[in-house]
Write a structure and sequence with these properties.
It is a single chain. Helix 1 packs parallel to helix 2. This protein has helices at residues 26-40, 58-75, 85-88, 93-100, 144-152, 179-189, and strands at residues 2-6, 44-47, 79-81, 108-110, 113-117, 158-162, 192-197, 204-208, 211-215, 226-230, 235-238. A hairpin with a 2-residue loop joins strand 8 and strand 9. It starts with a strand and ends with a strand. The protein has 240 residues and is of the alpha/beta class. The strands form two sheets. A six-stranded mixed sheet has the order 4-5-6-7-9-8, covered by helices on one side. The chain has one domain: Purple Acid Phosphatase, chain A, domain 2 (4-Layer Sandwich), CATH 3.60.21.10. It contains six helices and eleven strands. 43% of the residues are buried. Bound molecules: fe (ii) ion. Residues 50, 84-86, 163, 199 line the site of fe (ii) ion.
């Protein structure tokens, strides 16, 4: 199966934030991404988080998220939406997925490859991010033991998807507090073949032994920042 991947649309009404984020352009970019995924015959898409950015009022945030939802659902391609820190500091988890009417990350096996979804939208003390906000650099995967155990439960090769960064080549402030333990577990499992991440907007691609770490460049800061992962041929290609 071909899986469409993208990250960090940060869609909002604002034309420019943080000097380089073209937030308001992201909706059109997502339409282009889904047209490309359809042309490629993708059977699944994964949004690697931070679909949305704050707009100044919650009503406006809801309106913008619904616009994104409409692009995703009208594509007809099943999509898994991971929450990023901006999503989780704007919406509670329940409201976010209620607006989508689905799209929750549910693990599955495709072409003999386990797809494992992880969530680091938690503070180091284990508390879930909420719209009350907080320090985005304080991030953590709370179910580390269960996550690592899941890798050992079968002999099936796996790919891991999460918004935050486990790749140690990336700056520490982008990595969950327990990223080193996760990195060791992933690399020592002998099962994980690829880790797909967002969050670090420049993007990156690093290989450790047999494990490929791909960080998607941010949609809000790049053109054509969407990739297709072919689970059979095990290739990961940008759209251009
Ligand atoms: Fe992020």
């Amino acid at each position: 199966m071909k899986i469409g991947l993208f990250a960090d649309a940060h869609y909002s009404s604002q034309a420019l934030t943080c000097g380089t984020r073209r937030n308001s352009l992201s909706l059109e970019k997502l339409k282009a991404a889904y047209a490309f995924f359809a042309k490629q015959g993708c059977g699944l898409c994964v949004s690697l988080g931070d679909l949305i950015d704050k707009n100044g009022s919650h009503d406006e945030d809801v309106k913008r998220l619904k616009e994104v939802r409409d692009v995703i659902t009208s594509s007809g391609i099943e999509t898994v939406c991971l929450m990023g820190n901006h999503d989780a500091f704007t919406f509670g988890r329940e409201e976010y997925y209620r607006i989508f009417g689905g799209c929750e990350p549910v693990g599955r096996t495709i072409d003999g490859l386990q797809l494992i979804f992880a969530d680091a939208c938690y503070f180091g003390n284990g508390e879930r991010y909420t719209p009350a906000g907080g320090d985005w650099k304080d991030c953590f995967v709370p179910d580390e033991g269960a996550f690592l155990a899941s890798l050992g439960e079968s002999e099936t090769p796996a790919a891991v998807f999460l918004h935050h960064n486990i790749d140690p080549a990336l700056p520490e402030r982008y990595r969950p507090k327990n990223a080193d333990a996760l990195f060791r577990g992933i690399n020592e499992s002998g099962l994980v073949k690829a880790v797909f991440q967002g969050h670090y907007h420049p993007g990156a691609r690093t290989i450790y032994g047999d494990v490929l770490y791909v960080t998607l460049p941010a949609v809000c800061e790049h053109e054509n920042a969407y990739y297709v992962f072919d689970t059979k041929e095990f290739t990961v290609n940008p759209s251009v």
